[in-house]
Amino acid sequence: MDAGKAVALLLDPRANHDPIAAYAALHRHGPVVRAGKSYFFVSGYAAVDAVLRDPAMEAYDARRLDSQWSDWRDNRAVALFADSMLRTNPPQHTRMRRLAAGVFTARRVSALREVIAGQVDEILNALPAYGTDLVTHLTYPLPIAVITALLGVPTADRGRFRRLAEALTAVLEVRWTEEDRRQAHAAALELEDYFTDLIGRRRAEPADDLVTALAAAHDAGGDQLTAEELMGNLVLLLVAGFETTTNLLGNGIVLLLDHPEHAARLRDDPETAPAYVEEVLRIESPVQLTERYTSRPTTLAGTDLPADAELVLLLGAANRDPLRFPEPDKFDPFRTDQAPLSFGAGAHYCLGAPLARLEAQIALPALLRRFPDLALAGRPVRRPRMNLRGWSSLPVTLRKSTP
Ligand code: HEM
To answer: Gene3D superfamilies from the entry (predicted)?
Structure first.
């Protein structure tokens, strides 16, 4: 397959279900493949890692959006992400990231261990005996409960966020339709209204949570955090907090059910959970790609790149690079030197990585211990996404049926 066909295969919506063949084809053409005059796909581990760590590579920010799309601000979903740390560059990124890291501390995350274990217990106790869909009943509710607890979003409001985040994050995909755009815009407006109200309530009655802390940073004045940045980052933290973690949990469950010998090992020895979670992250990266732009002409892995070139960084492909991982398509939690790129690298390295890992390390063995006979009750259904790779339904039986 030539390089053009490999890219076409990757972008074909039917490949959302299986980009692996396209990744393998891209790897055969080297770490960087040109798909247009200024458009490149990067699939090699070392090349993706180098771009992510290179300060001369820029995130897709407002300046870049201005040069491509005159009325992008009219779409509130695009505008919200552009106000967040995810889509800014220094010095704005450095300022916001420092502030967010200051409130999203290791202390807050490790204090959540008990909260997570408690939530997992509660969710497992309440799983319906029949018609159990683990996406509806576990892989969404758990990360939503955790991130809303951290942010200080009231429990009663949790139910509305799955639909809103699904709609909003469509604008993080490589391709989207007019309808995706419209729904993302509507979801953004609803989330903005929601957080405007919540910020007001937390100002009146401060609590030990991220909404209070970030609103206080804005209220302190100076140039710490503008009103738009406060909103953009709160929405980012909410949706990044669960829309990705749900995929990690779902991907982990399917992989373990496909590999009963591993499910048994993890169930019997929960100490192995960190190794299992890293391998799930590697082989089925919940976020499959991100993008960067060159700020000047440069060379990447032997390929000349012009200034302002767009680079699609295929994290999911980098994680299956045969030059980095022997037998890359084999699920092997005990391979040495794991280090997948699923959380990115460099300045934008995922702020929530320790939290996402902790949730999966607690939930996966707990599920297997509670239901040793857990089995698929039908074919799981893939999410229709290229970037956010996971399952939209995961039907299971919890126990062997008795004759
Ligand atoms: C398995 C779960 C997760 C995955 C795979 C994931 C993946 C990523 C990736 C790949 C990036 C970097 C994007 C880039 O460089 O362009 C990122 C950034 C980010 N993630 Fe996560 N994430 C996960 C969970 C979380 C959680 C639980 C939170 C929050 C509680 C979170 C918050 C963020 C934030 C705020 C950023 C932006 C950091 C910056 O731009 O400086 N993520 N994530």
So the answer is: Cytochrome P450
